[in-house]
Amino acid sequence: MAKKTAPVYDFPAPQDNDTMIGHMGTVKNFMDAWNNRERHPIHPVWMLTGPRGIGKATLAYKLARMVYGNVGDFFIIDQSRNIDKDGKPKPDGKEISVYTVRAMIDKMQLSSMSGAWRVVLIDSLDELNKAASNAILKLLEEPPEKTLFLLVVHQLANVLPTVRSRARVEKMHPLTISELRDLCVRFMPDSDISSEILRLSNGSFGKIADMKRIGGDVIYDDLIATLQDSAATSADLMNIAKKIAPSPELYSIILDAIAYFGLADLYPCATRALVDINAVHLEPETGIFKILMDVKKCL
């Protein structure tokens, strides 16, 4: 029998995504402030906060395009533009350097002052290292005239209080099941998205996209079935661990499985163990295997 080929999904990056579903409260708040800016100056710093994968960056890009209108200047700080001290690309996915921020500030100082609005978009503020955060803070203390800052934040607790105090914080909420279904129809029209996957996503379409892109939904089903199987061996659990290990975005399905079986007492220990996989440089499959063995012992 021929092996079934997994579908290939092409999810647009936030800057290329024209589909915006949900978050109408945040959109209204911004539009009210923008449309009344002549009477009441708009706050120059907007912080879009909320869980990963709910559309914060997509909304930030939509607002940015409206404000600078292809006439003003648009400056972006993110991992893909990260540089080292020599100005060489360094998109390592860990943190955004102060050199990246300084380079953006230099470009701002050289940019045209035609009177058009300028936009600075940072995706995300959580990823700035301490020096980079301090450099942004200095910029926010006296924001340049007619410059709007759009700051994407996944964990508000990770942001320096001094930076947070200079921003208008817009708390964006997880998407509803209905909104998630609409996005699935738009981007995965031929896929079967189960109610279980929608529930596991916790309102994050980004999590659904990650799950479908790397087959996480199938791996999750295998994980549950293996844990439920009284005849499953340690070799079977290691097999599952090897499937999960290469994709850190899948690690959360272990916690989902713990919740599925109602093992609340195990949840904190498993959470710490997953963090330790990166913190103490454990072999991922070994660390995951140990957690799965602990789960199995509790069933």
Indicate the topology.
Blueprint lengths: L23 H12 L9 E5 L6 H13 L5 E5 L19 H13 L7 E6 L6 H12 L5 E7 L7 H4 L3 E4 L5 H11 L7 H6 L4 H9 L2 H13 L5 H11 L7 H9 L6 H13 L4 H15 L1
Parallel strand pairs: 1-4, 1-5, 2-3, 3-4
SSE order, one letter for each helix or strand: HEHEHEHEHEHHHHHHHH
What is the mean pLDDT? 91
Shape: elongated
Counting helices, strands and paired strands, the structural category is alpha/beta
Distance between the termini: 36 Å
User: Could you list the spans in which at least 5 consecutive residues all have pLDDT below 50?
Assistant: 1-5
CATH class call of the largest domain: Alpha Beta
| CATH topology-level fold name of the largest domain | Rossmann fold
How would you sum up the major sheet?
Answer: 5 strands, parallel
What does this structure look like?
With 299 residues, the chain is α/β, with parallel strands linked by helices. The protein has 13 helices and 5 strands. The chain has 2 domains: 23-171, Rossmann fold; 177-298, no CATH class. It has a 5-stranded parallel β-sheet, sandwiched between helices. Helix 3 runs parallel beside helix 4, helix 10 (234-244) crosses helix 13 (284-298) and helix 12 runs antiparallel to helix 13. The longest helix is centred in the last third of the chain and has 15 residues, at 284-298. It starts with 23 loop residues before the first helix and ends with a helix.
